[in-house]
Design a protein that fits this description.
The protein contains 7 helices and 8 strands, in the order αβαβββαβααβββαα. The protein is α+β, with helices and mostly antiparallel strands and 191 residues long. The chain has a single domain, classed as Glutaredoxin (3-Layer(aba) Sandwich), CATH 3.40.30.10. The protein is globular and about 40 Å long.
Length: 191
């Protein structure tokens, strides 16, 4: 690869990073963890997300609904984040396509909105039909720590064995849309 393609690739990556929102205290996020902060237990769904999830209408969803899914996307986002506002419609479109095709896939939202009401309003306004980790749960920050999330939006994809398939789901959906699912499924089966 010559200098021009390398510069173009570097510029594209720089632009992609500029289209993210920071989770640090100085960037409007909810800050770091304290020594007593809970940790996510990657050995069970309940350990990762808690025993119940919540939908945009406030209704509860049992964690067991995820047990039948081959792949789970963990979507870290917030309504105050311009990059999330730009990416979420693409993710919603990919999700809707996969649901229509009866793909074994679910997304769990991990919100960094300013409060529970903001999270639910954000989910509803953006058409997110997937569940979220309850805002009051300590799992939100613990999940971000577990997966090394520093910028949002971030989409981490795990398989039924709770193994990380990709931490770059956002970029993969941005490029391939719902077709990224096939790559994730193949990667999961190859493990």
């Amino acid at each position: 690869m010559g200098p021009a393609p390398l510069r173009a690739a570097a510029s594209a990556r720089t632009l992609a990073l500029a289209l993210c929102c920071c989770l640090g205290v100085s960037c409007g996020g909810d800050g770091g963890t304290s020594p007593e902060a809970p940790t996510a237990d990657p050995t069970s769904l309940a350990g990762l997300f808690g025993s119940t999830l919540v939908r945009s209408d406030g209704s509860s969803v049992a964690i067991q609904t995820l047990q039948t899914k081959a792949l789970i996307g963990i979507y870290f986002a917030a309504g105050w984040c311009p990059a999330c506002a730009a990416f979420t419609p693409r993710l919603v479109a990919a999700y809707d396509t996969l649901r229509a095709a009866d793909a074994s896939f679910e997304i769990v939202m991990v919100s960094f909105d300013y409060g529970a009401a903001d999270m639910l309003a954000h989910m509803k306004s953006r058409g997110m039909r997937w569940p979220a980790v309850p805002y009051e749960s300590g799992s939100r920050r613990a999940l971000a720590d577990l997966y090394g999330v520093q910028l949002i939006p971030t989409l981490v994809v795990i398989d039924a064995g709770l193994r990380t398939i990709t931490r770059d789901g956002r970029d993969e959906v941005a490029v391939k849309g719902s077709a990224a699912y096939g790559d994730w499924l193949a990667a999961s089966r190859g493990r």
